[in-house]
C-alpha cells in the first residue's frame, strides 16, 4: 500500500527527521537535527515561515540547531521542562538499551562527535494537552506527553497526524525505542498512541506509516518488546 504523504512537510537529515506544520500566519518546526545538516535544513526552511520550534525531547540530534534557527527565524522555542538539562548537557542521563539495536545505539552514542550542545532559551514549556499554534492559524494541534525514551518526551497531534519523536522508531520496521530512560513509561506511551489511533504516525527516525497497515498494527503487539 502506497503511503499518502499529502500535505506532509518532512526533511530527513542523516537518520533524523524534521517536520513543518503549516499555518495561515506562521509555521511550526518540529525538531531541528544536528549542526552537520544545518545548511541543508536552512535552505529547506526558506520555503516556510517558521514562528515556533517544538522539540520532542532533549537529545542533540533533535535539538542541535534549535538556538541557531530560533535566532535566524525569530521563532520561539518549546520543549518539556524535564528535558532542558538534557539538552544543555552532552552527557545523556542514565538510560537502558533495548534489544540489539539499543546496544548498537549505546555504542554509537559513546562515539558521537556532535560536539557540545549550543545554548538556547526555552520560551514555552510543554504540558500534556497544551494547544499549539492557534496564533499561527493552526487548528486542532496539541502537545501529547509520550515519556519513556526521555522523561520529557512529547509528541504533537495535528488533526489525525501524530508526530511522536522517538517514542517509537522505524528503522525498516516500527520498533520500541532503542534506548529508554524508563522502558515501563515508554510502553505506557505506546499504549497512549494506540488509544489516540492516529491515521498517520511520523517518527523522528524512519519513514512515516499509516494506520491501516500491518506495520501500524505491529507497533502495539505483545511482541513489540
CATH superfamily: Ribonuclease Z/Hydroxyacylglutathione hydrolase-like
How far do the termini sit from each other? Answer: 26 Å
Sheet/helix structural class: alpha/beta
Apparent shape? globular
Q: What is the radius of gyration computed over CA atoms, rounded to a whole number of angstroms? A: 16 Å
Helix and strand sequence: EEEHEHHEHEHEEEEEEEHEEH
> What characterizes the major β-sheet?
6 strands, mixed
Integer average pLDDT: 88
- Helicity range of the residues? 25-40%
Describe, in short, the structure shown.
The protein is α/β, with parallel strands linked by helices. Helix content is 25%, strand content 23%. It has a single domain (9-218), classed as Ribonuclease Z/Hydroxyacylglutathione hydrolase-like (Metallo-beta-lactamase, Chain A).
What does this structure look like?
By secondary structure, this protein is α/β, with parallel strands linked by helices. It has a single domain (9-218), classed as 4-Layer Sandwich (Metallo-beta-lactamase, Chain A). Helix content is 25%, strand content 23%. It contains 7 helices and 15 strands. The strands form 4 sheets. Strands 1-2-3-4-5-7 form a 6-stranded mixed sheet, with helices on one face. A hairpin with a 2-residue loop joins β9 and β10 (161-163). It is globular and about 40 Å long. It starts with 8 loop residues before the first strand and ends in a 7-residue tail after the last helix. The mean pLDDT is 88.
Amino acid at each position: 500500500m502506497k503511503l499518502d504523504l499529502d500535505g506532509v512537510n518532512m526533511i530527513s537529515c542523516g537518520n533524523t527527521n524534521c517536520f513543518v506544520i503549516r499555518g495561515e500566519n506562521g509555521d511550526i518546526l518540529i525538531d531541528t537535527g544536528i549542526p552537520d545538516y544545518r545548511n541543508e535544513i536552512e535552505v529547506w526552511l526558506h520555503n516556510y515561515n517558521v514562528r515556533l520550534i517544538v522539540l520532542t525531547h532533549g537529545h542533540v540530534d533533535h535539538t542541535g540547531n534549535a538556538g541557531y534557527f530560533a535566532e535566524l527565524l525569530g521563532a520561539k522555542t518549546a520543549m518539556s521542562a524535564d528535558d532542558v538539562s538534557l539538552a544543555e548537557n552532552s552527557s545523556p542521563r542514565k538510560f537502558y538499551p533495548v534489544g540489539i539495536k539499543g546496544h548498537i545505539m549505546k555504542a554509537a552514542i559513546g562515539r558521537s562527535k556532535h560536539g557540545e550542545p549550543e545554548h538556547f532559551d526555552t520560551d514555552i514549556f510543554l504540558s500534556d494537552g497544551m494547544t499549539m499554534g492557534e496564533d499561527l492559524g493552526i487548528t486542532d494541534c496539541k502537545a501529547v506527553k509520550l515519556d519513556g525514551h526521555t522523561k520529557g518526551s512529547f509528541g504533537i497531534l495535528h488533526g489525525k497526524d501524530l508526530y511522536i519523536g522517538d517514542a517509537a522508531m522505524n528503522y525498516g520496521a516500527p520498533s520500541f525505542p532503542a534506548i529508554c530512560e524508563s522502558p515501563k513509561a515508554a510502553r505506557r506511551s505506546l499504549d497512549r498512541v494506540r488509544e489516540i489511533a492516529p491515521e498517520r504516525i511520523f517518527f523522528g527516525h524512519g519513514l512515516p506509516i499509516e494506520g491501516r497497515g500491518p506495520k501500524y498494527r505491529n507497533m502495539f503487539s505483545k511482541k513489540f518488546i
